Amino acid sequence: MSSAPSVPPDPIAQFTTWLGEAEKSGVPEPTAMAVATADADGMPNVRMLLLKGVEARGFVFYTNLGSPKAAELTANPRAVLCFYWNQVKRQVRVAGPVERVTDAEADAYFATRARLSQIGAWASHQSQPMAGHFELERNCAAVALRFGLGAVPRPPHWSGFRVVPESIEFWQEKPFRLHERIRFTRPQGHWQSQWIFP
Ligand SMILES: Cc1cc2nc3c(=O)[nH]c(=O)nc-3n(C[C@H](O)[C@H](O)[C@H](O)COP(=O)(O)O)c2cc1C
């Protein structure tokens, strides 16, 4: 996409290529993305999350199921992801319905996390008021004591969501703001692409 415009056939493969190029170009957190949700009244919300998996089925992130974002996704299971990779001057937007990952997928990913991150997932009541940092440390100590030297299982309040893409847009900066944009949609289950004005 970056030189002579040609239409890449598969937007998931294109995303993976761009993510790899962002990594190679030194983007500090290439998997960081803004995740936009809206509540049942349509009030938008947005925050940064880390992408933990991407394949044909969709884009996966993990979080606390008691958090505002999880409540919003339950009330209104749709989201938009936005990546910006400054070093390569590229943006990608992904929009679509959201589903929960399976318990088996969440267990498998949770098992790869650092032990302290696993403990933190039990200890944190994400986005709830906290008396001070000591409260989090106290909770972490209690969780560490509870599990001792054994494996830390995935908390029931922690899992992942998958954004199933209905639309993926690639944006590449070009001189004089004559940027290249291509939008993929799949109205009948097959990806179609369309160049759009910058
Ligand atoms: C770069 C970056 C990556 C983050 N990744 C995650 C993540 O993967 N999962 C998560 O629950 N929160 C992550 N956070 C914290 C969220 O931005 C947010 O503060 C938290 O999830 C609570 O969001 P909510 O109140 O909208 O539910 C990250 C923050 C930053 C700045």
Structure in words:
By secondary structure, the chain is an alpha+beta fold. It has one domain: Pnp Oxidase, Chain A (Roll), CATH 2.30.110.10. Helices cover 28% and strands 33% of the residues. It contains 5 helices and 10 strands, in the order H-E-E-E-E-H-E-E-H-H-H-E-E-E-E. Strands 1, 2, 3, 4, 5, 6, 7, 8, 9 and 10 form a 10-stranded antiparallel β-sheet that branches. Helix 4 packs across helix 5. The protein is elongated. It starts with 10 loop residues before the first helix and ends with a strand. The relative contact order is 0.19. Flavin mononucleotide (FMN) binds next to strand 2, strand 4 and helix 2. The site of flavin mononucleotide has 16 residues, from strand 2, strand 4 and helix 2.
Per-chain topology:
Elements: H1 11-24, E1 32-38, E2 44-50, E3 53-55, E4 58-64, H2 68-75, E5 78-85, E6 90-100, H3 103-112, H4 115-123, H5 133-147, E7 158-163, E8 167-172, E9 180-185, E10 192-196
Helix pairs in contact: 4-5
Bound molecules: flavin mononucleotide (FMN).
What's a quick, concise take on this entry?
It contains five helices and ten strands.
The CATH superfamily is identified as Electron Transport, Fmn-binding Protein, Chain A
Portion of residues within helices: 25-40%
* Element-level helix/strand string: HEEEEHEEHHHEEEE
Overall SS class: alpha+beta
Distance between the termini: 14 Å
**What is the count of β-strands?**
10
The radius of gyration is 19 Å
